[in-house]
Each structure stands twice: as C-alpha cells, then as structure tokens.
Amino acid sequence: KRPLGLVTIAEAGIPVDYDLHEVIEVHDAELPEQNGLICEVLAPGLVWRGRTLKKARVSAWRYEEIMGGAE
C-alpha cells in the first residue's frame, strides 16, 4: 500500500519533463510529432507531495529532419 501523496511516474507517450524524467536512451523518430515524447519507461519514478524522489528512467524519441537531397 502506497502512502498518501505518493505518485508513480510511469507514462509513455507524453513529453519528456526533465524534472521528472532521466532520458537514458534515444530512438530515431519517423514523424516530427514524436520528437521529445517518451517511447518507453524503463524504470518508474516517484513523486511525493509534489517533490520528485526518484526520476523515471526513460527512452525518448528524437526527430531529425534531413536537409538537402539529390542534386
């Protein structure tokens, strides 16, 4: 049973918040909309009464647009 006010950080598909998340893996995104979103929670984090006790360890998407092309 969790003490009152203790919240688990374990949600994928949301933007990375560096106050709550530690990005330990980065994956190439196919779509620009995926840039900066969490793709997988590798270890959940904990927040107690608004204070981060343990950051969630996550992997995140990074979109890089390729400039130029064949000439």
Could you write a compact summary of the structure shown?
With 71 residues, the chain is mainly beta.
Average predicted local confidence, pLDDT: 92
Overall geometry: elongated
How does the major sheet shape up? 3 strands, antiparallel
Number of strands: 6
Order of helices and strands: EEEEEE
Q: What structural category characterises the helix and strand content?
A: mainly beta
Q: Percent of residues in beta strands?
A: over 45%
Measure the end-to-end span. Answer: 63 Å
**Number of helix segments?**
0
Helix-residue proportion: under 10%
Unreliable residue runs: none
Notes on the protein architecture:
- By secondary structure, the chain is an all-beta fold.
- 0% of the residues lie in helices and 46% in strands.
- The chain has strands spanning 6-9, 21-28, 38-43, 45-48, 51-54, 56-62.
- The strands form two sheets. Strands 1-4-5 form a three-stranded antiparallel sheet, with no helix packed on it. A three-stranded mixed sheet has the order 2-6-3, with no helix packed on it.
- 10% of the residues are buried.
- The mean pLDDT is 92.
